[in-house]
Amino acid sequence: PFPTEQTGALGEQLRERGHEFGTTTGRPRRCGWLDGVVLRSAARLNGATQVAVTKLDVLDELETIPVCVAYEHDGEPIETMPAWPEDLTDCKPVYEQLEGWQQPLGECRELSDLPPQARGYVEKIAAVLRQQRTPYHSRFHGDLNHHGVAVCAEGCALGDVMANLLRIGAGV
User: Fold this and answer.
1) What is the rounded CA–CA span in Å between residue 50 and residue 62?
2) Are 2 and 30 within 8 A, CB to CB?
3) Are 141 and 150 in contact (CB under 8 A)?
4) Prediction pTM value
5) Which of 20, 17, 54 minimizes the C-alpha distance to 165?
6) First to last CA, the chain
7) Three-class SS state of 117
8) Each residue of 65-93: b (16+ CB within 10 Å) or e?
């Protein structure tokens, strides 16, 4: 199950702008909105102290950007992954709508270069991660088209963040 998947024209737009096609097969990849429930769960299970936000420029043209902050299951809000995969099929995403920035980010080199709305999106990711009781903050490195923004736990080493971003940017 992929509760935040976009299967219509918007999903196709995200796929095209992000070049989300299999390298070998060319098969279209599934695309959707940021799922904070999955993000928190994955960070907790993997002991992640940092995440890299890549392809932020894919969202450049959007007026609003939904971020899934919880699910609704059987009429009740839940902020954690359901215990059973079958229950995830019945979950409906609860979105917080963020204002889009509607301008290209390709020339941005510092976090302060990002439009306020793009910084707000990155800070929202950090806030979603902070809900698991690990203090996260944002750091910026490089070209958003190739590297991205690191959202890291308080006290993580910038060198580690940069190395991870460079490795991700190189497709390693």
Assistant:
1) 26
2) yes
3) yes
4) 0.78
5) 54
6) 27
7) helix
8) bbbbbbbeeeeeeeeebbeeeeebeebeb
pLDDT per residue, tens digit, the chain (172 aa), is 899 999 999 999 999 999 999 999 999 999 999 999 999 999 888 888 778 888 888 999 999 999 999 999 999 999 999 888 888 999 999 999 999 999 998 888 778 888 999 999 988 998 888 765 555 555 554 444 443 455 554 444 444 444 444 443 434 3
**Tokens 């932020």, located at residue:** 56
> Which residues, 6 or more positions from 138, have their beta carbon under 8 angstroms from its beta carbon?
111, 119, 122, 123, 125, 126, 149, 150, 151, 152
Q: From CA 41, how far away is CA 62, in angstroms rounded? A: 27
Using an 8 Å Cβ cutoff, are 54 and 167 in contact?
no
